[in-house]
């Protein structure tokens, strides 16, 4: 019995360690485990005003005490704000979302905000930010990816 | 029970019974249930993260496949005879999470296998799980009704 258990544990260990992949670990792989603090992403004309706007949005959101990690992606249509809520504050998730949407809409009335506290949305936003570093990754592709994220966010159970 | 006065023999027997009765280790059982139930939930959380990471599921939508996977795993474990041992050790900790549902289905199916596939397995498979489904659906209906009414009245 003991031998069988031991061999089962050994087998599962071997099986699990096979899953480590190509060894390249990016921020988006660890986004659930640690604070990534990704820089704001702009998928639009790279003007001074636009850049300042995204950074201001990120700063404003980061000021909220209940959060600890914020990712902002802005395209010419929508602005995605993904954030992680501190664990004990997760009880007030809905309230925080309401407060944030109100604050953002009052401060930036021209923008169309999509606000989400979902981990998946956060991971995808970090991934998008990583992909933007690649010069082959065109704005068009980025826009498509952002649309995909927004579609994912609006999906219901 | 009726409050009839007991005969002297009954009272004597009661005393004898109390002398021999084993004390139920309530605290120990609770701690065991806490650990086993918690462990099952940790596995469930890991599966949720697995679906979030490797598939297109959000936190909102990952719940359904997670439940299905957990039930499937517990069904397999029941068939292999592992879940019985877990249930013996953990008690309510293994019955209350959704895995207990899978266990209830398969253990009933195994038990009545000798009575044939239709009247045995088919007829008895949902003997215990049937009430879970019935009252689950009914309570979901009631909760949805309350929520709909609250939305209509503008409370939430």
UniProtKB/TrEMBL annotation, chain A:
Residues 1-21 form the signal peptide. It comes from the Bacteria. Keywords: Lipoprotein, Signal. It holds the Pfam family Spore_YhcN_YlaJ. The keyword Lipoprotein applies. InterPro entries: Spore_lipoprot_YhcN/YlaJ-like. This is Sporulation lipoprotein YhcN/YlaJ. It comes from Cytobacillus firmus (Bacillus firmus).
TrEMBL record, chain B:
The keyword Transmembrane applies. It holds the Pfam family SpoVAC_SpoVAEB. The chain crosses the membrane at residues 33-54, 66-83, 132-155. Keywords: Membrane, Transmembrane, Transmembrane helix. InterPro entries: Spore_V_AC, SpoVA. The keyword Ribosomal protein does not apply. This is Stage V sporulation protein AC.
């Amino acid at each position: 019995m003991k031998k069988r258990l031991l061999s089962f544990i050994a087998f599962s260990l071997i099986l699990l360690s096979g899953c480590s992949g190509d060894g390249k670990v990016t921020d988006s792989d660890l986004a659930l485990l640690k604070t990534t603090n990704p820089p704001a992403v702009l998928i639009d004309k790279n003007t001074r005003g636009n850049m300042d706007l995204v950074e201001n949005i990120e700063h404003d959101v980061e000021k909220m005490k209940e959060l600890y990690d914020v990712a902002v992606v802005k395209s010419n249509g929508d602005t995605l704000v993904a954030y992680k809520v501190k664990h004990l504050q997760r009880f007030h998730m809905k309230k925080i979302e309401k407060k944030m949407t109100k604050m953002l809409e009052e401060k930036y009335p021209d923008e169309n905000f999509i606000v989400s506290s979902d981990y998946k949305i956060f991971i995808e936003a970090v991934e998008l930010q990583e992909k933007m570093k690649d010069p082959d990754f065109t704005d068009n592709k980025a826009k498509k990816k952002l649309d995909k994220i927004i579609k994912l966010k609006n999906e219901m159970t | 029970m009726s409050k009839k006065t007991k005969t002297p023999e009954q009272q004597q027997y009661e005393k004898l019974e109390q002398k021999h009765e084993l004390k139920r280790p309530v605290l120990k059982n609770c701690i065991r249930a806490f650990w086993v139930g918690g462990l099952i939930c940790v596995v469930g959380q890991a599966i949720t993260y697995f679906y979030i990471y490797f598939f297109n599921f959000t936190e909102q939508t990952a719940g359904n496949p997670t439940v299905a996977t957990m039930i499937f795993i517990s069904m397999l474990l029941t068939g292999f005879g592992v879940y019985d041992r877990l249930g013996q050790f953990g008690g309510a900790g293994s019955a209350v999470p959704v895995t207990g549902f899978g266990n209830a289905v398969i253990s009933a199916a195994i038990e009545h296998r000798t009575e044939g596939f239709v009247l045995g397995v088919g007829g008895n498979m949902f003997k215990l799980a049937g009430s879970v489904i019935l009252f689950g659906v009914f309570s979901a209906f009631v909760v949805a009704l309350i929520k709909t009414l609250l939305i209509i009245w503008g409370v939430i």
